[in-house]
Amino acid sequence: MEPEIARIAEAVQDRSAAGIAAAVNRLIKAGELPAGCRLPTVRALARALGTSPTTVNEAWRSLVRVGTVRTHGRGGSFVAENHRAGWPSRFWRIASAAGEFAMDLSAGVPDPTLLPPIHDVLSSIGRGPQPTGYLDPPVLPELERAIRGAWRDLHDPECLTVVDGSLDAVDRVLTSLLRLGDRVLVENPTFPPFLDLLELIGAQPVAVGIDADGMLPDELAAALASGDEPAVLLVQPRAHNPTGASMTPERARELASVLRSRTESCVVVEDDHVGEIAVAEPVSLAAHLPTRTVSIRSFSKSHGPDLRLAAVAGPSELIEPVIARRNLGPAWSSRLLQQLLAGMLTDRACADAVALARSTYVLRREALTHSLAHRGIEVIARDGFNVWVPVANERDALVLLAAQGIGAAPGRPFVAAQRSGDHLRLTTALLPTREADRVAGALANAATPRGSGMHR
């Protein structure tokens, strides 16, 4: 028997998941399992303890959550070295890019001047009855009707709830679905907090390439064939962050066909984080795989980040566990904010404001992409307000832009698997069209290797 297995087996008195986790945690704190030590596999330790692999898996997962253990999926689990549990390292690398710039294009936030007016809707809420009970339904009927109406051309989800924004939704769904070591198919590049969440859960991201139409079917098929069956496929169907790609209906059919033919259990989680400011029509794999697709739609970028509301919908067997677990925490999202959103979704002035924001974001994005194309730099940027720009060297490019008063987000936190070159992500939501040519010129210089001449 390996010494680590023998040491753990001797320390474990309680063979429940909590008992195993507590015993291993004590050994780590006592230094008997030092930092960097490779831990036994789930199956090996389960055999030694005479318990099930599921129980050991739960113990490992809880240790990952508190930060004592880090996992590399099939590469094994190790005692962490000065790891601060729950700290989203990739997310903070993006956040720390913000600074005192004359033009900060690093943060993917909407223009506050383009958000819908709320005063008239707020006044109507003040005159109406207020929800009062802890046992009231978590989703207001009028809001559920409005959300289902927006989804009516895609699918009719069996179960629907509302949580505190799209990232909260992704967190709750992934936590409900995943176990330590599970494989998760993600777009490459992808939204950095997705990778932070998977690391915290102890799941293994598997990178799948994308083009302007979304995830590539051939790469999806290869990823499905490359190892154990993945538990989740995590995608952004519209205005992909960071590239601005949007899935077409044809691509959705192709991806659904690959999934249907190669896996029976992989759950699709779709994060439509831009909602109604997207130019592309809504598209969902739920139209093809309704029994294993969870659809998330956010209202933060279209109606206001401070609403903190996103809808989560899908089959009852996938959504009800999320609702049940949430009852031990916040239980529901503010029903006052739900009333406000329901009113905004049916208010003509708000609808007109969202339409204006959508068209304005198109003009700002296209002003930059056209200027880049004029300088020989092609980007996807089909939708939303993010642009993924290739550069010669990420660090040099950030410094060059900063010297001209322009802030951008570094590309590496977005990358699930490095494949081709350095990039920066820029957000055009706050970019005046008159400044697009100057920013494009600075980016063209950043895209040129040192010593090879500069674009004009």
UniProtKB/TrEMBL annotation:
Family annotation (InterPro entries): Aminotransferase_I/II_large, HTH_trans_reg/aminotransferase, PyrdxlP-dep_Trfase, PyrdxlP-dep_Trfase_major, Tscrpt_reg_HTH_GntR, WH-like_DNA-bd_sf, WH_DNA-bd_sf
Organism (species): Pseudonocardia eucalypti
SUPFAM superfamilies: PLP-dependent transferases, Winged helix' DNA-binding domain
A GO molecular-function descriptor: transaminase activity
Alphabetic keyword roster: Aminotransferase, DNA-binding, Pyridoxal phosphate, Transcription, Transcription regulation, Transferase
Family per similarity comment: In the C-terminal section; belongs to the class-I pyridoxal-phosphate-dependent aminotransferase family.
Domain HTH gntR-type: 14-82
Protein name: Aminotransferase class I/II-fold pyridoxal phosphate-dependent enzyme
